[in-house]
C-alpha cells in the first residue's frame, strides 16, 4: 500500500509519469487510503485513460449478398478443382483409398474455407480463413505431384483446361448467374423462388464431356497455380484495406 500512497503523493498532473505505476495499476486496492487520496487517485485514473493510445477498432464486414463469395474467381476455381479432383480420385484403385480420402478432404477444405471466411464478421478472420484455404491448396498440389510420380496421374505436355473444353472465365460466370432457361421455372406452389440444387454439369455443360482419363498433372497444376495466385492477390487486397481501417 505504501507504493500506492507514494505514487499518489508524488504524482504530477502537469507532467504525468507512467513508467513506474503501483502494483496492480489501474485496478489497485484502495483500502487504507484517505478520502482525499482516493479522490486524487480517481483523477489519476481519468488522466491515464485519456492519455492511453487509441485502441484499434475492429471493423465488422458488411456484405450485400450472403453468397457473395460466388463472385470470387478463386472460389469458382476451387469448385472446379474439387469437381475435377473427385472425377479423378473416383478412378483410383481401391488400394489407394487413403490417398483418395486425403485428396478429397483437402480439395473440399479449399472451397469451404473461402466460404466460411467470407461469412466471418471481421476482415482479420476472413484473411485467416483464406490462409487455411491456401494451406489446403498447397496440400492438394503435393498430393497431385505424388500421384503423378506414382504413375496414377498421366503427364501429357501441352495439355490444359482449354484442351478439354474448359474456359475458366465462362465457368466463373456460370456459377454467378443461373442459366437463363431455369429462371422463372424454379418456383414452388406459393410462387416463391425455390433454392434447388443445380449440379455443375447443368450450370456448365462442357463438364459433361470431361472424363477421368482426360485429366493430367499439367491440367491440375494449371488450375492450382492460378487459384493460388488469385488467393494471394485477394489476401493482399484485404490486408491493404485492413491497414487503411487501422490508420488513426
Q: Can you walk through the features of this model?
A:
The chain is an all-alpha fold and 248 residues long. It has 2 domains: 2-51, no CATH class; 68-246, de novo design (two linked rop proteins), CATH 1.20.1440. Helix content is 55%, strand content 0%. It has 8 helices and no strands. Helix 5 (123-149) packs antiparallel against helix 8 (217-246). The longest helix is centred in the last third of the chain and has 30 residues, at 217-246. It is elongated, with a radius of gyration of 29 Å. It starts with a helix and ends with a helix. The relative contact order is 0.12.
Tell me the span between the first and last alpha carbons: 38 Å
The CATH architecture of the largest domain would be Up-down Bundle
Q: How many domains in all?
A: 2
The assembly state of the depicted protein chains is: single chain
CATH class assignment of the largest domain: Mainly Alpha
Report the radius of gyration as a whole number of Å: 29 Å
Sheet with most strands = none
Protein structure class: mainly alpha
Low-confidence stretches: 179-189
Q: What is the number of helices?
A: 8
Average pLDDT: 85
Overall strand count: 0
Overall outline: elongated
CATH superfamily of the largest domain: 23S rRNA-intervening sequence
SSE arrangement, N to C: HHHHHHHH
**Beta-strand content bin:** under 5%
User: What is the helix fraction of residues, given as a range?
Assistant: 40-55%
Give the CATH topology of the largest domain: de novo design (two linked rop proteins)
